[in-house]
């Protein structure tokens, strides 16, 4: 006997999309419905694949509903599955924990919400499948929920559903942390995880199969690329195949454009246009929101960073996108080019050389760099206010390095101009 199931998580239905940049108001509505449309795509996929059931491993909702329509709309989608005899198993995550959202919701009969008090098991005798799971009662679950899951039911295909920050994903909220070793002790066949939005090309473990599905729709520039869910096929009690299916309707891409050292304005225009067109094409007709990041040591550096001309360069990038498609827009343009000085300056004995070497030392000393973080951040915000991403306040290493590079560049350019 064989059957199929869908593993989805982190749908964040009705979560507002962030950082859309300038967007046509007529387009806005469609864009803001992206998380709903992605869920419709999950439902369509389950029907098309004749799935036996759909697993939702937490964060179905983004948080408390703005009004009842979010819940009513979702229930209508579950009813579509019901008419096809498809069951749904749902656990709460940190975003839709019982303390955050209506504690009890009247779901259609095909939907089973697993308990948030203790691990619960649903046996599907017709499929010889057992589904184990436990939801979040509160968002800040810091204990290892998996440790309390029951052992596998012999003779059944055992699936564990868990919303967790698995060891190794340290940058995420550390909720219900656990390890692959703990999951392995349960003897299950498949662990359907939720919480981490990133899509991994390979499972975290093959046997048992442990994977995050990632979220169904990217919601800002830090959630780039294809998003969707997993379709698993079970044959005679064994996992036969798992494949990813995209469900997103809109994609975020960061395009790094290295400006060639001798490129002129027209060549750069062409390069930007090509990069945008390629990204849009690769998204198979989906609405595309791109961040364009210009880097490289180049002759155009002075012009690109001239405060009087920078606005018009950003406008050129937006115009290039608009000329390609009205379903392509620019989230932000980041200009991170450097003047053509490079290693020559670094080796010199003067002040410029010394500054360059100091910056290089800092780059290799994350602790001192982190200690300088407030100064670097305020310098960065003062000097490149037009580009500073004030919505993104995280002090990751990547951002520290970016601030340092900007500070270095500004100081060096200033000193060069003065000499
Ligand atoms: Mn989560």
From TrEMBL:
Pfam families hit by this protein: Metallophos
Keyword terms of this UniProt record: Exonuclease, Hydrolase, Nuclease
Any one GO molecular-function label of the UniProt entry: exonuclease activity
InterPro entries to which the protein is assigned, alphabetical: Calcineurin-like_PHP (IPR004843), DNA_Repair-Maintenance_Comp (IPR050535), Metallo-depent_PP-like (IPR029052), Mre11_N (IPR041796), Pesterase_YhaO (IPR014576)
Descriptive protein name: DNA repair exonuclease
Hydrolase among keywords: yes
Residue ranges of domain Calcineurin-like phosphoesterase in the record: 3-197
Organism: Blastopirellula marina
PANTHER family with a match to the protein in the record: COMPONENT OF ATP-DEPENDENT DSDNA EXONUCLEASE (PTHR30337), PHOSPHOESTERASE (PTHR30337:SF7)
């Amino acid at each position: 006997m064989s059957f199929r199931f869908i593993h989805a998580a982190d749908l964040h239905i009705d979560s507002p999309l962030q950082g859309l940049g300038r967007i046509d108001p007529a387009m806005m509505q469609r864009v803001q419905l992206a998380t709903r449309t992605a869920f419709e795509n999950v439902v369509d996929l389950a029907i098309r694949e004749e799935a036996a059931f759909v697993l939702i491993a937490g964060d179905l909702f983004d948080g408390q509903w703005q009004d009842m329509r979010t819940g009513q709309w979702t229930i209508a989608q579950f009813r579509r599955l019901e008419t096809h005899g498809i069951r749904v198993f749902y656990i709460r995550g940190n975003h839709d924990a019982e303390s955050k959202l209506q504690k009890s919701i009247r779901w259609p009969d095909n939907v089973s919400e697993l308990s948030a008090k203790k691990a619960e098991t649903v046996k599907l005798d017709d499929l010889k499948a057992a589904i184990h799971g436990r939801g979040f009662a509160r968002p800040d679950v810091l204990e290892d929920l998996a440790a309390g899951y029951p052992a596998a039911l012999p003779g059944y295909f055992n699936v564990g559903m868990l919303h967790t920050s698995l060891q190794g994903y340290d940058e995420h909220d550390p909720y219900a942390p656990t390890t692959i070793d703990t999951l392995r002790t349960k003897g299950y066949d498949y662990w359907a995880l939720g919480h981490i939005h990133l899509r991994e090309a390979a499972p975290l473990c093959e046997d048992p199969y442990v994977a995050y599905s990632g979220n169904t729709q990217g919601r800002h520039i830090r959630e780039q690329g294809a998003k969707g869910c997993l379709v698993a096929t079970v044959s005679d009690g064994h996992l036969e195949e798992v494949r990813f299916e995209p469900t997103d309707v809109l994609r975020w891409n960061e395009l790094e454009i290295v400006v060639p050292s001798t490129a002129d304005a027209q060549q750069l225009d062409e390069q930007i246009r090509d990069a945008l067109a390629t990204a849009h094409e690769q998204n198979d007709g989906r609405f595309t929101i791109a961040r364009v990041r210009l880097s490289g040591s180049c002759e155009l550096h002075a012009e690109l960073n001239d405060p009087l001309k920078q606005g018009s360069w950003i406008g050129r990038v937006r115009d290039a996108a608009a000329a390609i498609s009205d379903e392509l827009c620019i989230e932000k343009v980041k200009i991170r080019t450097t003047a053509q000085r490079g290693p020559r300056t670094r080796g010199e004995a003067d002040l410029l050389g010394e500054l360059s070497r100091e910056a290089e030392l800092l780059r290799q000393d994350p602790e001192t760099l982190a200690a300088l973080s407030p100064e670097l951040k305020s310098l960065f915000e003062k000097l490149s206010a037009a580009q500073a991403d004030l919505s993104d306040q995280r002090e990751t290493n990547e951002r520290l390095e970016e601030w340092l590079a900007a500070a270095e560049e500004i100081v060096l350019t200033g000193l060069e101009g003065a000499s």
